[in-house]
Amino acid sequence: MNTSARESLLARAIARPETEEKLARRILDAALEQFTTFGLRRSSVDDVAKRAGVSRVTVYRRFRNKDGLVEACLLREGSRFFQELDAAVAALPAMEDRVVEGFVVALRHAGAHPLFGGLLRLEPEVVLPYLTVQGGPALAATTEYLTGHLRRARQTEGQPESDPRPVAELMVRVAVSFLLNPASCIELDDDDQARAFARRYLTPLLDA
């Protein structure tokens, strides 16, 4: 998948695509199970079709090829991730609280997710480039997502106009670094410790 395609994929996930029709959802459920059990490299369209109880022709008609199937699966799970993140912080009154809870939810969900966290453990050589040396598109799209939240919060709270993009990027980079290497003096598996870390070290960035 080329750079523009990956960038478009994450942008579409953030935009929350419409729910797929019933048969496509069944195929994607089977694909998620297949990919998280055996990884991307050892999985074929035939494997997914068998799990879904459909013919390979049916899969090809909806997803073109294996790359299209992988893309659709990532798109759906990415959309669910951002919806869960939005839902977790929507009712919180202050931006500081939303940053804290968003950090905790993002780390917990990404690390425990069977596809994202699972592939990172199962096939790190496949996933790591897209989070490191080839991670520009993912970083840009995720930063744009958080920038929008920070900008709207500043407007709602009547704060002076400023560009929150550098702060958003720094927060994203911190979260990704913990996801890639969770070994730390901070017990980030403990939600209370993760919240304390975010409140002490991330929320002060909002005043930068």
Please give the structural blueprint:
Elements: H1 3-14, H2 22-38, H3 45-52, H4 56-63, H5 66-89, H6 95-112, H7 116-122, H8 124-131, H9 136-156, H10 165-180, H11 191-202
Helix pairs in contact: 1-5, 1-9, 2-3, 2-5, 3-4, 4-5, 5-6, 6-10, 6-11, 7-8, 9-10
Number of helices: 11
Q: Overall 3D geometry? A: elongated
> Which residues form runs of ≥5 with pLDDT under 50?
none
The H-and-E topology, N to C, reads as: HHHHHHHHHHH
Radius of gyration: 18 Å
Largest sheet: number of strands, sense, barrel closure: none
| Amount of helix | over 70%
Beta-strand portion reads under 5%
The total strand number stands at: 0
Global mean pLDDT: 85
Give the termini distance in whole angstroms.
37 Å
- Structural class call reads mainly alpha
Describe this structure in words.
This protein has 11 helices and no strands. By secondary structure, it is mainly alpha-helical. The termini are far apart.
Question: What structural keywords apply?
Answer:
mainly alpha, 11 helices, 73% helix, elongated
Outline:
With 208 residues, this protein is an all-alpha fold. The chain is built from eleven helices and no strands. Helix 4 (56-63) crosses helix 5 (66-89) and helix 9 crosses helix 10.
